[in-house]
Design brief:
By secondary structure, the chain is mainly β. It has strands spanning 10-15, 20-29, 41-46, 53-56, 60-65. It has one domain (3-65): SH3 type barrels (Roll).
Length: 66
């Protein structure tokens, strides 16, 4: 999955627990840049909430641009 293609896009994510999340992707942290993470992470600004939520690639069941 190429998470970089979603940066600055509004998306709907279904996580591995089948929970739906909607918001704007603010950035992607690549695992290659860190010693302590194994998967790339997508940072999502959730609609109607402050802050961002990080989604490791292995916890994203599906993602679509909306």
């Amino acid at each position: 999955m190429n998470l970089k293609e979603y940066v600055n896009k509004k998306v709907r994510i279904i996580d591995i627990d089948d929970k739906e999340w909607k918001g704007k992707v603010t950035s992607v942290d690549l695992a290659i840049n860190y010693d302590d993470i194994d998967y790339d992470e997508l940072d999502l600004k959730i609609d109607g909430r402050d802050g961002v939520v990080a989604f490791p690639e292995n916890e994203i069941k599906s993602i679509e641009i909306i």
